[in-house]
Amino acid sequence: MALKDRINDLLGQVNQMKAANADELEALRIKYLSKKGEITALFNDFRTVAPEEKRELGQLLNQLRQQAENRINEMREQFAEKAAEADKLDLTRTPDPIELGTRHPLSLVKEEIIDIFSRIGFTVAEGPEVEDDKHVYGMLNFAPEHPARDMQDTFFVEKEIGIQKPTDILLRSHTSSVQTRVMTSQKPPIRVLCPGRVYRNEAISARAHCFFHQVEGLYIDKNVSYADLREALLYFSKEMFGPETKIRLRPSYFPFTEPSAEMDISCDLCGGKGCSFCKGTGWVEILGCGMVDPNVLEACGIDSKVYSGFAFGMGVERITNLKYRVKDLRLFSENDVRFLRQFESC
Ligand code: DAH
What we know:
By secondary structure, the chain is an alpha+beta fold. The chain has two domains: 3-88; 105-343, Bira Bifunctional Protein, Domain 2 (BirA Bifunctional Protein, domain 2).
């Protein structure tokens, strides 16, 4: 092949040169530009070229060598830049932490209540939040015009297609409604815990909300006594608030229990001496309870001559306030992460 053609051929190759890394690049340099390289070889042959061709071929050859050098230098710089970039990456740096969500304080406390009672044989039962009057009031011994219905400040569902008496449907105002569902569908012995959300028509403030959470308990068997109720609640209080906790039962009234009581625990802030939290009494109220009224048992198809039972109901927000001193109820439903993150380690 004539020298000119060989030069053009190599020019084509030089323009196509590609290297994936510094080693490949060095191999290319050796192939074309080293002492034994192909371009260097052409320079040796150039010596024998006829004088009239020397000028043209000399220029071409110089151009070829220049081009090969430029291309190789260019690629060398690119590899150097890449290497410098890689050096900038600090592979020992710890990665940005993954943000973990937190469990809601109400869920934490609800789970703890369930856990404590599950150790003495209670299982969880659930019922609907949109309920009928019968399950929320009627079967629980509330007389039709009973002021307690009003007292509960119920949200009634006014329009519902296909429902004859619209005001029979309501948002449950207490989880005692689940009692009636369980008693009509299960046979004693019954030992259930009914956690859930309840609704009352209250103006929202730091101390009241139109929805909140309750855990209801129900135990029905032969020979269940008031002493059993007291023991179960004492056990719960000590587990929840510490072994020093004392309880006291004050007579009260609920249509579905007879006798009825409200239960206080000794104030764990002042140890019962009296402080601003317990309003100087040394006691704080935490739940309502009582022996299931025979009328309720009968309304649910349970023979009240054979069976007796106790029931209790507590507000999860109230227990959470006692445990974590949350002063404003609204914090529970605002989803403010600054509040929620405080329960990260709980
Ligand atoms: N249902 C009551 C309320 O919402 C709480 C309650 C009191 C539940 C006494 C009970 C009970 O089961 O025995 O205020």
